[in-house]
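Chain A, query sequence.
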Amino acid sequence: MNQIIKLQNIIKLFHRKRWLSLNEGEGVVRAVDDVSIAIGEGESVGLAGESGCGKTTLGRLIAGLYEPTGGTVTINGRNINDGSTQVRRLLRTECRMIFQNLDAALNPFMTVEQILDEPLKIHTKKSKSDRRKRILEVLELVNLPVAFKNEYPHTLSGGEKRRVSVARAIVVPPKILIADEPVSALDVSIRAQIIDLFQHLREELNLTMLFISHDLGVLNDVCDRILVMYNGKIVEDAPIDKLRSRTLEHPYSRRLTESVLQIKVE
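Chain A, predicted structure.
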């Protein structure tokens, strides 16, 4: 299988100012600590762990939103942190991230049509009529009525906002989709619909997907493989069957599994 994402010895440090501290290292947070992983083309991988373990930071590093403190992030054989503008531009087209905070991610002053039109204007040379046609196609793909193109984010439900967020991510078809807590704060029935949507899009667009979630039930439904993250490190890399059979090996992975009442076995 072709490795579309490859991380080698990735470290990400954040510095917090401590005005009264005499210890220089005291204000340093090691969010990602020497992580090396590979994700194959067309694979759907889950990244699990508790809040603050470094999951979102790792997703942002892959998407090129953060620069690593050390190590290399390679997408399709290209080092995305080599300083090349061309590589950065290609990455923005090939890799998209769906953010957890929908209210912050969707511009409240833009209609759904304007939100979806923006990446088309930036990343393609489509005419206005072709862009409108593509917007209608994508709305249909994420199961939103055409009339929603005139709505503003504040008029939409949580599930509808999530669908708009997904539509924006795929309006210029990417190769890689990173979803950060994609069904958090949604009702159970809406959550099931969004999970079905991701499964459909994966098949329809042949996407490589990284799902970031603390909810093992979600990862069980949509992933082929699970990565467990603890304190900035990947402590387990296992096929999803090990989650379903509750045979993950690392003690922290087992504690995560025990926190789930029931995991569906297919």
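The mean pLDDT is 90. The first strand starts at residue 3 and ends at 15.
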